[in-house]
Amino acid sequence: MDPVDRRKHHRVNEEMQAILVNEPRGSDMRGAKVRDISEGGACIELDGPMPVGAETYVGFFLKDDSQPLVAVARVVWSKREGKGHLLGLQFAHSTAAQRNAIARLSEYLETRRMELVVSSS
């Protein structure tokens, strides 16, 4: 990856579970683990590769909510690490539902950032 950080959003190192699905009602589900996440995207660990450019539905299980947050994302980079792969996902903001999901994620992340600041003081 480029050593220059071009991200627009601050990342939060937040380990949570996620599920990737290739289509809205698809049965091809893959479990994943989130390494870090922001309003713009996420870095996830997955058992195998996904091609750069692939679109996927991602369900995140936020700690303060019983319903998963579902977002559409595009794979922007992929690299092998250990026995699995790390993927860089960029969230889509194309529909009202996607914008609402990202707004919900943004609220959650802001709460988590504040918790991290308080706990480190």
Structural class: alpha+beta
What fraction, in percent, of the residue positions are helical?
A: 10-25%
Report the total helices. Answer: 1
Tell me, what is the CATH class? Mainly Beta
Distance between the termini: 32 Å
Plain-language structure description:
- The protein has 121 residues and is α+β, with helices and mostly antiparallel strands.
- The chain has one domain (16-120): Thrombin, subunit H (Beta Barrel), CATH 2.40.10.
- 21% of the residues lie in helices and 40% in strands.
- It contains one helix and six strands; from the N terminus they run E-E-E-E-E-E-H.
- It has one helix at 96-120, and strands at residues 16-21, 29-37, 41-46, 55-60, 69-81, 84-91.
- Strands 1-2-3-6-5-4 form a six-stranded antiparallel beta barrel.
- The longest helix has 25 residues, at 96-120.
Task: Write a compact overview of the structure shown.
The chain has 121 residues and is of the alpha+beta class. It has one helix at residues 96-120, and strands at 16-21, 29-37, 41-46, 55-60, 69-81, 84-91. The protein has a single domain (16-120), classed as Thrombin, subunit H (Beta Barrel), CATH 2.40.10.
Keywords for this structure?
121 residues; alpha+beta; Thrombin, subunit H; 6-stranded antiparallel barrel; 1 helix; 6 strands
Fold blueprint:
Layout (H helix, E strand, L loop, with lengths): L15 E6 L7 E9 L3 E6 L8 E6 L8 E13 L2 E8 L4 H25 L1
Antiparallel strand pairs: 1-2, 1-4, 2-3, 3-6, 4-5, 5-6
